[in-house]
Design brief:
66% helix; two-stranded parallel ribbon; mainly alpha
Length: 481
Amino acid sequence: MAVRLGKPNTVLAACLDELGWSPKVLARKLNRVFGVGTVAESAPYHWRDAGALPRSPLPAMAAYVLSQELGRSVSVAELWQGRAGDSPMLVPADTDLARPWTVQGLGQIVEDWVLGGLVDRRRFLAISGSGLTAVVAQYLDGTAGRGTYTPRIATGPGADPLVDQVEQNLPLLQLLDDEYGGARHLPYVGAQFRAVGLLIHEGGHSTDVATRLVRALAEIGQLAGWMAFDAADHGMAQRYFVTALRAAHQVNDLPLCAHILADLSFQAASRGHPADAIVLGEAARRAGDAAPIAVRASVLSRLAYAYATAGRTTDFARTRGTARELIEQRGSGEEPRWMYFLTENHLDCQAGYALIQLGCRQQRDGGTKLARSHIAQGTALLESGAHNASRSDSSHQRRALFEGAWLALGHTARGELELACDVGQTAAGRLETVHSPRSTALLRQLAVALRRRQRNSYVCGFLPSLEQALTRHGAGHQPPR
């Protein structure tokens, strides 16, 4: 139950007015950031109008969301007039990551992962702006220097059976994400990450074995970060990505560093922070200057997405075109194993949903003609993607769900409701096996868009089943009261 004061909360009211939000919008934002069911949509009206104090940790959650949106700090004490304190379980994602970019600094970060283990109940809050760039600043400005270990390994498979097993397991871990989405097996992949961290923490390895373990930590950390991002656990994703970046730096693996920076950029763009995305994406481009063609193309595709979310259409088109040219030059040269997913079609589809997002924003801003053009281009690109992949094709299920949700949104924006419902039906059917809150959020957007068109016979037939699927597979914890 919320504690009532009886007087309006003028600080909360002023913050909402500054953002142009109603209390319902605040509730929806809280549910989007912290999970469906975090708070009832009516609750913030009581907070604002009657001075109700929600149960912990909602006071800290609300202060965090408002700070992120306002671009300045709103403390828990200020927002709730000293009646609530910070929650010790809600901490910024950069907590204890400000270590020297040395092998000793990496060791201290790894120790925190190992000691936390499965009993760590902290919820890490995603950071943005100067907080995000600060946590990788020494890498961005070059002051981190070179890593401790050489990029090449003198000994190969067979020298250490345990390390062989760790390395052989990496491709199989990636398949879990491709087939089931980030949320399904993130705890297992996180446990693998900590297991490798434990080996590093124990020490006593030869230089070659230590190098292989740190590289494995970087690769698993990148995968865990991506899965946490797909699971909409953005603060945890940032911690994995930053730890992985530091590990990749210690083995001087610039292609992997570029790949991880591009992941951070893509995450920032997806969270609605285009300025952060561009800074990180341009840093990834610089880091990947000498990387294999596939890595450079992937990095540029993520930077193009960042430009699109910022509305920089010329930069988007130029960067996307360069990425496409590079991938067309791809030959038989050696490239990282973790770049297995990149194809020409993958780049096209990424450009497709960037164009749909750009067009929908232009549509809201009144730029109808240009918006229609961008949405049409994006929809055409996604038509060639994985949205209609067979349910038996395990390698594309998460991608098929994500791209299918975007394609359905594109058709809806164009008024092609029969197509939207047909594609949406296929996408929603994948929720049975794919646990991807990032994709589920897009299907929720689709449901909102279709509710405005319920008189259409196709929408009338499809919308109830979509909402049932979202309720069945996307339900969160019970809202605090």
